[in-house]
Write a structure and sequence with these properties.
Number of strands of chain A: 5
Oligomer: heterotrimer
Chains: A alpha+beta, B alpha+beta, C alpha+beta
Strand content of chain C: 15-25%
Distance between the termini of chain C: 83 Å
Order of helices and strands of chain A: EEHEEEHHHH
Largest interface: A-C, 53 and 58 residues
Structural class of chain C: alpha+beta
Number of helices of chain C: 20
Structural class of chain A: alpha+beta
Number of helices of chain A: 5
Strand order of the largest sheet of chain A: 2-1-5-3-4
Helix content of chain C: 25-40%
Distance between the termini of chain A: 35 Å
Largest sheet of chain A: 5 strands, mixed
CATH superfamily of the largest domain in chain A: Beta-grasp domain
């Protein structure tokens, strides 16, 4: 069956089987390599994408479920993510990088939806579903808070 | 690439009526709402349905309405929407608290309250609050609709009162006033994890005595339960730590935990007692009543 | 006059440098943007439709003879290219690391639930799945041994028949006379400790993509930590010369030692499939397979007896270490050796007896994991120190300082530590920063529901490889004609940043070129064998080669510049793209022009940096002698709060201290510390592999093997550093990667013991375990 949706601002249409998951369709059929495969059970967050602006696990969605919706990955947010990426690089919040695209998307969605009173606790709660085995999270949280002034609530 | 989902026919009806019609016509069907339980079940081959009906686009099942003495929630309301709803936070706060501790933001953005209830895991976290509120569930089929109280909805692990041609469409929560309530979850870590045990309690007090008492637990029986023995004991008793402790011990009469990879039955029993005390003391605290003799 | 080329001279020259341009600064890593935008490629990113897909057939028995593998039905399916078993291996089916006891594909026998028996190779994922379902294995079950103590004594059931027992390896340390030592001790403490397995849970599971070329040559893109080991193992399996096998390690999604052990095996499996089918193949372990197949952190039983005088001087230790090495020895002998040598903790002990046993069981093998045998033995050693201190009525930190290794000390292998022993100063400063004394007294008095505790763990960790195995470093650096610099190294980028930060910094510092001009080609067999990226040697040893190669080039450039500018080579400064005489900055040559001149004069602008790390002698029969070239030291103070009603332990704050020589990149080092503390906290509080009666891991997924999320980690304070320089390390650096994890189990468990007033002698400290211990000791609450 055909599924059509907006991917990083562009209309795409692709043939899929009903049992294909979004993660595989994005990686193998649409060339989006930023989303990673860590568990395929909705536990690790490496496959996070934005569905209509909200973070979701692409391994927990059938491709057919996103018909007519909007999917965004880091490839489609290069400019918007610049301040966040700059903070991540400065603070040293990236090590192996496997979790990074997922974390950036979740952080971006958080910063665009939160007020100026964003606390460290809020950031931790938002990132609860993005596992990182390398950094211990401290610098990631620091980088997100450092970048917050560049993002206004939408 | 780690798992292969079985093949199935996929349907996406545009209206509830269409969905109910399909449900009555097709055999071997599973409903797809958020899919966060179903996709796991398909992967581990718990279910291999021939047909899947995707109801996630039925806007008619997405609402939160405050009707004064009750709140009506459409079954496709996501867990995140429950957390963010001012109506839920004020009129059914335990539900928001439970949802807040469930899974991750990514899952909560698509997981639905209806899905959590119909999946009927013994550890479903929306259940204890709804059991406390004595919610009423509306089940619809092409033949009509019926209301089932939540206390009668769960029949066993992953078994509910839902018939094969029915869809859960609405959860109605009576608004209980003047109660202090609390939801406590114990897990293997602070972040989201399957409960070792989770408890919801609601109490109100008159003339220094317990009036209404409601206690509900999950993960300690084949279904979420109400601890009626403990509740009945406590009603009419003085608000003292000794009575609360006695009641907490009576919780054991209504639970039958098993040992599994997360915890032993022994530990679950002991924690059911301890957390019941914690939860009742905290519920009283929220009514402005301080109980001596127990550190929260 | 010739140019200095001798590595020892060059290393020492740069060790004495006083001012730095980039070393010592938190320079940003080169790959940050690529990783952020998903452009950095990991193995799976090279997979495309058309590449053959491999599905593994794993054993469902812990111990059994393989009667036969039935593949006919599977082979009949269209699109199925091969079903490969041990019989199809063209070369030698032997991948054992320390001992030759391990096949790549099970042969004749399986020895653990999850062992790989066969590879199904098909056109795509669906066909491979279909075919795998049709492959059947017929077993003749044998009795299985799951408990190491039982297996140790059992001589009728042998997991490896040719060994004659289930003891894979033994270590021995004999220093002084322990009977005499205990006789002179005023207090003696004796306990048994148990620690559990840990799963690495790197976010990227194992993967390899093999591409056959002409003439039996093959290229494998693989997630491995030692390219040349993957090359050697693959060559052996295929029966081809090593030079026919090219290994390329792209970015790795975490390693922690797991991909050091398993990476080469994954590469060999993919290569085998490619060799047999003649087509490119791809293998990626599912998360469940990853957890079931690859080797784990050691599970141990440690019996420890310590004695001290009433003045607080350690007199003797008698330690028995039993490692459950699982079905295959793998790194077991090295892990046990390291544990044995470090068994005393970083203290002077005049009399020591250590007996180590590596025991086979029918479970997943043990293997490399950050700390490599040290976390468990330090857990035991540091508990002993606390208990001795308690009996002596001394403060735990004071007692440790009284016995701590200092320059001039001898270890329990009688190795003299002449220099680079900064631990005492680190512990003193750490105790001050954490307000140790005040809190130790205050928290110890608490009696309510929530009890706070404070605990310290101090550890040491020899850098470089164990058992006297030769260690060396190398790199090739070429200054290109346009003045850019290419560095080729076998060190891989597992996330720690060695190639993309510290190596670049070192080259930039030594050559004087801006960082942007330096490009590192890492993780390739095209570079000389640099050893593995493990043992915290990525920078400490791995970068020595980089330093030496860069230093050689610098000497040549200094000589040339001196001629051109009419000065002495020692007065040449290279900075910000300019080459000039010290003090005469206005008369400069541009870097690019200097290089052009070098090329036109035929001066070699390529250099290698081979450096052999000198090691002394070690006598394995008595465990005495030179164990490691240097030791990194680390201390962690942990503050906990225990809910005595539920048993839940919360680690609230952690203060780390490191005496690891020169800190080349503070940001990078902090990142390692913070990550290690998180991983150690997870190990102690929530991570647990659960085996059933068949030795099968019943929680091979993230739902039930829980690791810390952002919400679960303690607050990690800024580290205390003591830069006790190591003479052979680049700019005096020692290893960092593993350090901060090693004392974490000790620190947390000591803090919990402080909070509760009694000790729990095993890990993990899950809420359930702590609760029942409290109930046993303190009664119902």
């Amino acid at each position: 069956m055909k599924v059509s949706f907006i991917l990083n601002g562009k209309y795409v249409s692709v043939d899929v089987k009903s049992n294909e998951i979004l993660l595989d369709v994005l990686r193998h059929k649409l060339g989006i390599k930023s989303i990673k495969r860590g568990c395929e059970r909705g536990e690790c967050g490496a496959c996070t994408v934005l569905l209509n602006g909200k973070p979701v696990y692409s391994c927990m969605l059938l491709a057919v479920q996103v018909d007519g919706q909007e999917i965004t990955t880091v490839e489609g947010l290069e400019n918007e993510l610049r301040p966040l990426i700059k903070a991540f690089a400065e603070v040293g919040a990236i090590q192996c990088g496997y979790c990074t695209p997922g974390i950036l998307l979740t952080a971006y969605a958080l910063l665009k939806n939160s007020s100026d009173e964003l606390t460290e606790s809020d950031v931790k709660k938002a990132l609860e579903g993005n596992l990182c085995r390398c950094t211990g999270y401290k610098k990631i949280i620091e980088a997100v808070l450092q970048a917050r002034k560049y993002y206004k609530k939408a | 690439m780690f798992y292969r989902l079985p093949e199935f026919n996929y349907y996406r009806p545009a209206t509830l009526k269409e969905a109910l019609y399909l449900l009555s016509e097709l055999e071997d069907v599973k409903i797809l709402a958020g899919g966060t339980d179903l996709l796991i079940d398909l992967r581990i081959r718990r279910y291999r349905p021939k047909n899947i009906i995707d109801i996630s686009r039925l806007k008619e099942l997405k609402y939160i309405i405050d009707e004064g003495d009750k709140v009506r929630i459409g079954s496709l309301t996501t867990l995140q929407e429950l957390i963010e709803s001012p109506i839920i936070r004020s009129k059914a706060p335990l539900l928001a608290e439970a949802a807040y501790n469930m899974s991750s933001w990514q899952i909560r953005n698509i997981a639905t309250i209806g899905g959590n209830l119909c999946n009927a895991s013994p550890a479903a976290d929306t259940a204890p609050p709804l059991m406390i509120y004595e919610a009423k569930l509306k089940l619809k089929s092409i033949e009509g609709e019926r209301i089932v109280p939540i206390t009668k909805f769960f029949r066993g692990p992953r078994k509910t009162e839902l018939r094969s041609n029915e869809i859960l469409t609405e959860i109605e929560i009576p608004y209980i006033r003047d109660v202090g309530s609390s939801f406590i979850k114990l897990g293997r870590r602070d972040a989201f994890t399957l409960s070792i045990v989770a408890i919801a309690t609601a109490v109100n007090v008159r003339d220094g005595k317990f009036a209404d008492v409601r206690i509900s637990l999950n993960a300690v029986a084949p279904t979420p339960v109400r601890a009626y023995t403990a509740e009945n004991y406590l009603k009419g008793k003085n608000v003292t730590i000794d009575e609360i402790k006695k009641a907490a011990e009576l919780v054991l009469k209504d639970i039958s935990p098993i040992s599994d990879v997360r915890a032993s039955a022994e530990y679950r029993k002991e924690m059911s007692v301890i957390l019941t005390i914690d939860s009742i003391v905290r519920s009283l605290d929220r009514l402005g009543i301080k109980v001596e003799g127990w550190e929260l | 006059m010739g140019v200095v080329e001798d590595p020892y001279t060059l290393i020492e020259k740069w060790l004495r440098a006083k001012e730095f341009m980039v070393v010592g600064k938190g320079i940003e890593r080169a790959d940050a943007l690529d990783k952020a935008l998903g452009r950095a490629k990991f193995v799976e990113d090279y997979y495309e439709k058309g590449i053959l897909f491999i599905k593994q057939i794993l054993s469902t028995e812990p111990h059994a003879r393989i009667k036969r593998v039935i593949r006919d039905e599977a082979l009949k399916l269209p699109g199925v290219r091969a079903v490969i078993t041990a019989d199809d291996i063209p070369g030698e089916n032997q991948v054992g690391y320390a001992l030759p006891d391990q096949p790549l594909l099970a042969s004749g026998k399986v020895r653990y639930y999850g062992e790989t028996i066969a590879l199904v190779v098909a056109d795509d994922f669906d066909k491979a799945f279909d075919a795998a379902e049709l492959v059947k294995v017929e077993y003749e079950p044998l009795p299985a041994l799951l408990d190491p103590l039982e297996a140790m004594k059992e001589n009728n059931i042998l997991i490896h028949d040719e060994v004659g027992s289930n003891i894979a390896f033994r270590t021995r340390i004999r220093k002084g006379n322990v009977e005499e030592g205990f006789a002179r001790s005023d207090v003696i403490v004796e306990n048994e400790y148990r620690t559990h397995h840990q799963e690495h849970l790197y976010l990227e599971p194992e993967a390899a993509l093999a591409i056959p070329g002409l003439d039996n040559r093959i290229t494998i893109i693989t997630a491995a930590q030692h390219p040349h080991l993957a090359q050697a193992i693959t060559a052996r399996i295929l029966g081809v010369p090593a030079s026919y096998v090219k290994i390329v390690v792209p970015y790795l999604g975490g390693g922690f030692g797991g991909k050091d052990d398993e990476g080469p095996l994954v590469a060999a499996k993919a290569a085998l499939a490619a060799y047999i089918t003649g087509k490119p193949t791809f293998l990626m372990y599912t998360r469940e397979e990853s957890i079931m197949i690859h080797p784990k952190r050691e599970a141990t039983i440690i019996k420890y007896k310590s004695g001290a005088t009433k003045d607080g001087k350690l007199m003797a230790i008698d330690v028995t270490i039993i490692h459950d090495t699982g079905a295959y020895a793998n790194r077991g002998p090295f892990i046990l050796w390291r544990a044995s040598v470090h068994a005393s903790g970083p203290y002077e002990v005049p009399h020591a007896r250590v007996d180590g046993y590596c025991i086979y069981t029918n479970k997943v093998p043990q293997g490399s994991f950050r700390g490599f045998g040290n976390p468990s033995v330090q857990f035991a050693a540091e508990a002993q120190m606390d208990e001795l201190a308690k009996k002596l009525g001394m403060d735990p930190v004071e007692f440790r300082l009284k016995n701590m290794l200092r320059p001039g000390s001898r270890t329990i292998t009688n190795q003299l530590l002449e220099e680079s022993v900064g631990i005492a100063e680190a512990v003193e400063r750490l105790a001050k920063v954490a307000e140790w004394r005040k809190k130790y007294v205050e928290y110890g008095k608490e009696r309510g529901r929530y009890r706070r505790g404070i605990g310290i763990g101090v550890a040491w960790h020899g850098i470089s490889t164990s058992r006297g195995v030769p260690d060396w470093s190398n790199a090739v650096i070429t200054i290109e004609k346009d003045g850019s610099v290419t560095v080729r190294t076998g060190i891989v980028e597992i996330g720690q940043g060695s190639p993309n930060t510290s190596h670049r910094q070192i080259v930039s510092e030594v050559l004087g070129v801006p960082l942007e001009k330096v490009r590192i080609a890492f993780g390739t067999t095209d570079a000389p064998d640099t050893g593995a990226t493990h043992a915290s040697r990525g920078t400490s040893i791995g970068a020595i080669g980089v330093l030496v190669a860069a230093a050689r080039l610098r000497e040549r450039l200094n000589k040339l510049a001196a001629e051109l500018l009419g000065a002495s080579p020692s007065d040449i400064v290279i900075k910000n793209g300019k080459v000039y005489v010290k003090g005469k900055e206005d008369k400069y040559i541009r870097w690019e022009d200097l290089i052009r001149e070098a090329y036109s004069r035929g001066i070699e602008m390529s250099a290698t940096g081979y450096f052999f790390l000198p090691k002394g002698k070690f006598d394995d029969r008595v465990g005495q002698g030179y164990a490691y070239p240097a030791y990194s030291y680390v201390a962690v103070i942990a503050e906990v709060s225990v809910d005595t009603y539920t048993g839940k332990v919360k680690v609230t704050r952690v203060w780390p201290a490191l005496a690891a020589g020169r800190i080349i990149n503070p940001t990078q080092v902090e990142g390692q510390i913070e990550g290690a503390v998180a991983q150690g906290t997870g190990y102690v509080l929530m991570e647990q592999l659960i085996f059933d009666k068949k030795g099968r891991i019943i929680n091979p997924d993230l739902t039930d093997y829980v690791i810390p999320t952002a919400i679960d980690v303690p607050k990690v304070e800024k580290p205390v550093y003591v830069e006790d320089l190591f003479r052979y390390g680049p700019f005096g650096a020692k290893g960092v990667g593993e350090m901060a994890l090693i004392p974490v189990p000790a620190a947390i468990s000591n803090a919990v013991a402080h909070a509760l007033g009694f000790r729990i002698y095993s890990l993990p400290l899950t809420p359930e375990k702590v609760y029942f211990e409290i109930k046993k000791r303190m009664g119902k609450r």
